[in-house]
Specification:
Elements (H helix, E strand, L loop, with lengths): L3 H7 L1 E5 L1 H9 L4 E6 L1 H6 L9 E4 L2 H7 L8 E6 L13 E6 L4 H13 L4 E4 L9 H7 L8 E3 L3 H10 L3 E5 L5 E2 L10 E6 L7 H6 L2 E4 L10 H14 L4
Parallel strand pairs: 2-3, 5-6, 5-10, 6-7, 8-10, 8-11, 9-11
Antiparallel strand pairs: 1-4, 2-4
Helix pairs in contact: 5-6, 5-9
């Protein structure tokens, strides 16, 4: 299993499983080394075509490296893509996550953002590592296709995008407008979503131009990934959005 701190220090991450490895290569990421067992080599001969160093490993080693109960025996060491928030286009569409700690939720949000044609995702340091194994699996490799920006000052970035013409919306309950009442400005969009336990911080909410809530029945709230996906689809994912 990869250690997040070590991976960050080395600016590398490990993709496990043939689909993630092939997706990483197909997305143009810098792949340095691919490791596979004899069984994996015979089952997926396309691994031999990957343009990087290739090393065969034993089944016991694959089991040690794997974070899954039934490993496929395929691993790739890749360079992390680097994106600076200065590159974020204020005319683009972004999903911003504040301290969403569940890897499954972060992965699901990234998958929806890529599927709905969003320009990128903005994550705070309190979010699950977008290049961690659980997020990679939950995102189905979406992180290879979607720029992921990280910031310790989400409120400041939202204010900056808003000053440049983007519509900035915070998902919350208090003082919120019904989602059906929100009208898109036609320019850029930044949607901010917090974790299930605490929601968004007061500072992030104050940095947005409006607060939006999803009209629901029976339940008090939605899972963070579900809420983010509904908002992305309704406000940015529709063809006429």
């Amino acid at each position: 299993m990869q250690k997040p701190a070590f991976c960050r220090a080395e600016n590398r991450f490990v993709a496990e499983g043939v689909k993630l490895c092939l997706d990483a290569a197909g997305s143009g990421l810098a792949m340095e080394t691919v490791y596979y067992t004899y069984k994996a080599e015979k089952r997926w001969p396309q691994l031999l075509e990957l343009p990087c160093e290739q090393l065969r490993i034993s089944e016991p080693v694959a089991e040690k490296l794997s974070g899954q109960k039934t490993p496929q025996g395929v691993f790739a060491v890749c360079r992390m893509p680097e994106f600076g928030l200065a590159e974020a286009d204020p005319a683009g569409r972004y999903i911003a996550l504040e301290d969403v700690q569940d890897p499954a939720n972060v992965g699901a949000v990234l998958r929806s953002a890529a599927a709905f044609g969003f320009s990128g995702a903005i994550l705070t340091p309190g979010c699950a590592d977008p290049f961690g194994q659980k997020v990679l699996r939950a995102s189905m490799g979406a992180v290879f296709k979607l720029p992921v920006f990280e910031t310790a000052d989400l409120a400041g970035e939202l204010r900056r995008l808003g000053a440049q013409g983007a519509q900035t919306l915070a998902a919350a309950l208090r003082g919120a407008q019904d989602l059906r009442e929100i009208r898109r400005s036609g320019g850029g969009l930044a949607l901010a979503v917090g974790n299930e336990g605490n929601g968004l911080s007061a500072e992030v909410i104050a940095a947005c131009s409006a607060v939006v809530r999803i009209p629901i029945r029976a339940m008090e709230s939605l899972n963070a990934a579900v809420a983010a996906s509904v908002l992305m689809w309704e406000l940015g994912g529709r063809r006429d959005g």
